[in-house]
UniProtKB/TrEMBL annotation:
Keyword Metal-binding assigned: yes
Key words, A-Z: Metal-binding, Oxidoreductase, Zinc
GO cellular component: cytosol
Limits of the Alcohol dehydrogenase-like N-terminal domain: 28-157
Protein name: ADH1 dehydrogenase
Amino acid sequence: VIRCRAAVAWAAGKPLSIEEVEVAPPKAGEVRIKLVATGICCTDEQLLQGCFPDAEFPVIPGHEGAGIVESVGEGVTSVKPGDKVIPLCHPQCGECSFCLNPQSNYCLKSHFSEPQNLLPDKTTRFTCKGKQIHHFLWVSTFAEYTVIPDYTVAKIDAAAPLDKVCLLGCGFSTGYGAALNTAKV
């Protein structure tokens, strides 16, 4: 278990609180990441305002970030400790019919078909003051460490500047996709 700082939203409509949290080790098929950089997206603000009907509080927001793999659970072969990575708020298992379709970025293992507040095994890796703290979009980048499923992490070039590439997790890809695919710019 790692103790670190995180921004915790204890309730909708309340300000974030910097807290010491405990981050459990990764289970099979999971990756624990030391987050180096995070972005702030309007989606995080919408969570704090209570706009996500299935979100549960308390929660650690954040869904775009970049970091270094600290440890991996049993069976993880896609990344190893020391790898630079970007957590993905839209998983890509690479095996389901949607991932294999070049017209889609919706994975069947996505949190959209699962509750977004717990990991796929229906548990959390965060606790604070003896209370369970929920995940946000399985990512929770407003913490110094996080645990996510291995199919929600992308290994990146070792020379990549983490403070810049953190935006690839949501902000850049969403904006680029909207301009190219929707607005046809």
